[in-house]
Specification:
Elements: E1 14-19, E2 25-26, E3 29-30, H1 34-48, E4 52-56, H2 67-76, E5 80-82, H3 88-95, E6 102-105, H4 119-126, E7 131-135, H5 145-153, E8 156-158, H6 160-170, E9 180-184, H7 189-202, E10 205-208, H8 210-219, H9 236-239, E11 245-246, E12 250-255, E13 258-263, E14 272-276, H10 278-290, E15 293-297, H11 309-320, E16 324-328, H12 330-338, E17 347-348, H13 353-361, H14 365-368
Helix pairs in contact: 4-5, 7-13, 10-11
The structure holds 3-phosphoglyceric acid (3PG).
3-phosphoglyceric acid binds near residues 22, 138 and 353.
């Protein structure tokens, strides 16, 4: 990958920066600005060199405006929001840009061409700029027009954060340090099978938490009550025999209005598993203490409904450890931001699903497209 420091004659050139400002928004307000903060070094670098910067991003599945994102972005850096993507308004705004100015275009997914990976849409976007920069690691696993077609139409470069993501996350599969502890939470078992299989080979211990653990507990023959489970458990019976695999032996369940800490094999039919139990965190604590590399993706409980405790406790334990710590996943990162702990880890990724694909395949379509 070529990085932005290799771009020559930046002054006055129009640079399309594909960022990922797909931020959590509630009641019209941005809840977490982590991804904005992480894109700023690239934006600042190019602005100082007097580029004309055009920021492009998606938000949600399409249909939403980026106006709330523009408002937050403006607290960090002066930008002008253009509520248009490739139309006349945008073309005029780009024509009138002065060196060092920044504009943010409207949600790319408001044009069907983005998700359909339309060549025409990509060509129209390319007409707006002279250079393309990918600073959107979290969406680089999507074969969208602005991710895989645009870099083929313009000279293309990797943003500073994208480079850091690739470098740091590669430590997981490129001669990892040992003992290597991989912690995997969240849900969607079927999408995580390849990852679990791969890291059962690469890591020394693979701890499974979150709703993912429910599938394993169910496969062990335990009652999981009304807990969230996957629709498929293909391949699980083989994985479960692996000695490196560690499951929570204690869970927190919602029983009526109460939260109860209990043995994982004592869950009742009407209960819902919300979190790892405190003894399970204790088990993880000793592995965290001895690990030299900790890779963690996905929350360990249903954090939005009272299952945040074990994730917070484990975050504190990892923060204290001397191991290289690489953490990611949207929900976990939101918690890290809330707890103001980012500086305590070796690397906090901006990615969600993109991390899983990168860890499983060693690259992403958006990264390959830059070469
Ligand atoms: C993310 O937030 O994980 C990325 O922006 C990708 O979003 P998507 O899953 O809607 O493609």
């Amino acid at each position: 990958m070529r990085g932005i420091k290799q771009i020559k004659n930046i002054r006055g050139r129009k640079i399309l920066i594909r960022v990922d400002f797909n931020l959590p928004i509630k009641n019209g307000k941005v809840e977490d600005d982590f991804r904005i903060k992480k894109a700023l070094p690239t934006i600042n670098f190019l602005q100082k060199k007097a580029a004309k910067i055009i920021l492009i991003t998606h938000l949600g599945k399409g249909g939403d405006t980026l106006a709330p994102v523009a408002e937050v972005l403006n607290k960090f850096i002066k930008i002008k929001f253009v509520p248009d993507i490739i139309g006349e308004k945008t073309q005029k705004a780009v024509r009138n840009m002065k060196n060092g100015e920044i504009i943010l275009l409207e949600n790319l997914r408001n044009n069907a061409g983005e998700k359909e990976c339309s060549k025409i849409f990509a060509v129209n976007l390319a007409k707006l700029g002279d250079i393309y920069v990918n600073e959107a690691f979290p969406v680089s696993h999507r074969e969208d027009a602005s991710i895989i077609l645009l870099p083929k139409l313009l000279p293309s470069y990797a943003g500073l954060q994208l480079e850091k993501e690739v470098k740091n996350l590669s430590h997981a599969f490129n001669k990892p340090k040992h003992p290597f502890l991989f912690i995997l939470g969240g849900a969607k078992f079927s999408t995580k099978i390849p990852l679990i299989k791969k890291y059962l080979k690469l890591a020394d211990h693979v701890f499974i938490g979150g709703a993912l653990a429910n599938d394993f507990l169910k496969s062990k023959g335990y009652e999981v009550g009304q807990s969230l489970v996957s629709d498929t458990n293909y391949g699980i019976s083989k994985i479960i025999k692996n000695k490196k695999l560690i499951l929570p032996d204690y869970v927190v369940v919602k029983s009526g209005d109460k939260l109860i800490n209990k043995k994982a094999n004592e869950v009742k039919k009407d209960e819902i598993i919300l979190d790892n139990g405190s003894q399970a965190v204790g088990k993880l604590a000793s592995l965290i203490k001895t690990a030299k590399l900790i890779l963690w993706n996905g929350p360990l409980g249903k954090y939005e409904v009272g299952g945040a405790r074990s994730t917070k406790e484990v975050l504190k334990l990892v923060a204290l450890s001397k191991a290289e710590s690489i953490i990611g996943g949207g929900d976990t990162v939101t918690m890290i931001s809330e707890m103001n702990m980012e500086h305590k880890f070796s690397f906090v990724s901006t990615g969600g699903g993109a991390i899983l694909d990168f860890l499983a395949n060693g690259t992403l379509p958006g990264i390959t497209a830059l070469k």
